[in-house]
Predict the 3D structure of the following.
Amino acid sequence: MQESIQEKFKRLFRDIYINIDPNASTWKRLKITVDFLWEKFRYDIELIDYIQYQFYYKKREERDKFITHGKLVEIIKICNDPRSRKYFDQKPLFNEHFQKYTGRNWIDTTKCSKDEVKDFLKNHNKIFAKCPDGMFGKGIEIIDTDSILDFDTFYKKALKQKLLLEEVLTQHKELAEFNQSSVNSFRVVTLVCADNTVKVMAGVLRLGRKGKFADNFHHHGIASLIDVETGIVCTVGVDREWNRFVIHPDSGKPIVGFKVPEWNSIVDTVKQAAMVHPEVRYVGWDVTIKADGTIVLIEGNPGADPDVTQIEDQIGKWPIYKPLLEQIKKQKKINNVGRR
């Protein structure tokens, strides 16, 4: 349901109270509101941009450095062929096209027999059941297969929801030490440049909380930036309520300074994967490491939200992207002229 203008203003005032100043005067609230509306209509930002990037503290020069909603739309328009987005948005298609990098057993319940589904359940103690087009960690359920007492009912549900079933990965020991209930992972953003080389634009460590099976930032997870040159976590962790953590709040394991195991292999893997569909230049890869050190792609996101790459250090990343996007636009123009 679309949010009304009145509801938008209520949400804005609520965010001012919660995130900016609970004692804000009427004049201050009006000033912030006018400032946001100017940003919204002049620079195409969303309310969440204004709040999470703390624009109420920042001057124009600093604000311009952030990848906000309008700039993300621009990145996607310049970089990604919409005809190929399905290979990323549809989880079964992703697993098919990136089979080399998935590192796990899986089955599409809509494309196999009832007996094949039954055998899959017998061979795995725990599975992920995923809706084919779920986002932000939603549409995913972890199932203990011994708890499935009525297979026929489960099978009907799987067909109705077009479920993708995957084995639950046993993660690397160093990642499990942060939180064992979730598969902790990395968001690694790549860009296929104009010369068809692949550049790693950002890396993020994503950690789940005790009892949660998802580590997604939009699903109560904690995110912190990784220095892409060294593989070392270089910022504190941040959650969606803007709490900041030097150590994991449940396990006590240090976040800042954590050296990501197999980082060079992670970088090599996402660079190779980026060239499977190079017509989709901008992708945020969700990656983890299995217990044996194997690098595994969980999924690829061709509309990856830049929030988790800018919130932790409050530094906008647009200056990194802008010259590369200009080169891509120039190259596309040359290619179009050459086809005439």
